Amino acid sequence: MIEGLHHIGVAVRSLTEALPQWTAGLGLRLEGVEEVPTERVRVAILWAGTTRIELLEPTSPESPIAKFLEKRGPGVHHLALKCGDTAAAIRVLVDAGAPLLDQAPRRGAHDTQVAFIHPKYLGGVLAELVQDPPEAH
Q: Could you give the number of structural domains in the chain?
């Protein structure tokens, strides 16, 4: 069901302030920045070799990322797990009794299909299931 790590999501207050440390400082490659209006977030996609890191900047005080920053400050927000079929993964997790934040896949950045698993299922780790669009395979 899980094919590997898709990305690590990192909450930041400002992409403008955070990106220089990640790009010039660490030398990570910036693929681009995308706004996801439904999540009220701007996402910067970075690459450390073959590992994808997403910096997440809230675009509204109502954003889940804004609430995370308010409560915990900047830092690792979630681990995203790659799967071939998010809907099927949700069904397996529901059958296993996993508490989910999403009962059906929804659109994520770069036309992915995503769903979140409640952190209490994985000992405090928020996990995201990610299915890439067909052309990305």
A: 1
